[in-house]
From TrEMBL:
Highest taxon of source: Bacteria
Short name of any one Pfam family annotated for the protein: ABC_tran
Organism: Pseudooctadecabacter jejudonensis
An example Gene Ontology molecular-function term: ATP hydrolysis activity
Keywords, ordered alphabetically: ATP-binding, Hydrolase, Nucleotide-binding
EC id: 3.6.3.17
InterPro entries to which the protein is assigned, alphabetical: AAA+_ATPase, ABC_carbohydrate_import_ATPase, ABC_transporter-like_ATP-bd, ABC_transporter-like_CS, P-loop_NTPase
Enzyme class (EC, first level): hydrolase
Protein name: Ribose import ATP-binding protein RbsA
Domain ABC transporter: 6-248
Gene that specifies this protein: rbsA_3
Length: 257
């Protein structure tokens, strides 16, 4: 049996009468890159929020790295090894790039005079430059605070943060939706690097070209349900769009992976 990093069983989220996510059965293998596609309001972000502990699910199970998990919040998920880049970037505006990259996992060093630990800014700056270099992201001055950066630069910082720590799973929710051509290609290079390093990825995207370029498998959501689970080589853009719009139904579909 393939090594599974993430599995959801019957994952369901209702907001009052709104059935945003229904009975989602999903599996992701270690090293695999999967795209989640679907129309606006199909339930993609809701699915991500239930996995990453941003919200508490109505019912169903999440199994991560062999263990059933109930994350109390996104930091809990991050500690367990899930890095997420949300549509609304979780960056601290008043901090510079190294502080953002190391937020919650600051490097410290011992003071040679006594039993005190200090933040090791020098090491964090060096690691930041190395991380940006590795990912090809160009930020003119890493000491600038995030609030002084363009939307594209912010997104690149968020994604460089994700890519520079070896997480067990990376989730990106529409990472390039607000980016220009050059920044988009930087983000796509980061995704390729993750693939080369054997790190699994869930990519929520509306961009068909990007999905067909980057992932191994496409899972389509429609009206809160998973309606298709397609290996890239067995499908094409037209087929995927047919599932997204409902022209082709997933009535025969039994569950993902
Ligand atoms: N906090 C909430 N309260 C009530 N309804 C919600 C809430 N969050 C999402 N919904 C509803 O749940 C459904 C699924 O929304 P979701 O954001 O998951 O869609 P999506 O597929 O990510 O869409 P998009 O591509 O536009 O981001 C929508 O009908 C949305 O209006």
């Amino acid at each position: 049996m393939a090594d599974i990093i993430l599995e959801t069983q019957g994952l369901t989220k209702h907001y009052g009468g709104v059935h945003a996510l229904n009975d989602a059965n999903f599996k992701l293998e270690k090293g695999e890159h999967v795209a989640i596609m679907g129309d606006n309001g199909a339930g993609k972000s809701t699915f991500v929020r239930q996995i990453t502990g941003v919200e508490q699910r109505t019912s169903g199970k999440v199994i991560f790295d062999g263990q059933e998990v109930n994350f109390a919040g996104p930091l809990d998920a991050r500690e367990a090894g899930i890095e997420t880049v949300f549509q609304t970037l979780a960056l601290a505006d008043a901090l510079d790039v190294p502080d953002n990259l190391f937020l919650g996992r600051e490097k410290t060093k011992w003071d040679w005079l006594g039993p005190f630990k200090f933040l090791d800014y020098k090491a964090m700056r060096a690691d930041t430059l190395a991380a940006l270099e590795k990912t090809g992201v160009k930020i003119p001055n890493i000491r600038n605070t995030i609030q002084n950066m363009s939307g594209g630069q912010r997104q690149c910082v968020a994604i460089a943060r994700t890519a520079s720590f070896h997480s067990k799973l990376t989730i990106m929710d529409e990472p390039t939706a607000a980016l220009g051509v050059q920044e988009t290609s930087q983000v796509e290079n980061i995704i390729r690097t993750l693939k080369d390093q054997g790190e699994p990825l869930i990519l929520v995207s509306h961009n068909m070209r990007q999905v067909m370029d980057l992932v191994d498998r496409i899972v389509v959501f429609r009206r809160g349900r998973i309606v298709a689970n397609l290996r890239k080589e067995e499908t094409d853009g037209q087929d995927i769009v047919a599932y997204i719009t409902g022209a082709k139904t997933g009535a025969e579909f039994e569950g993902a992976a």
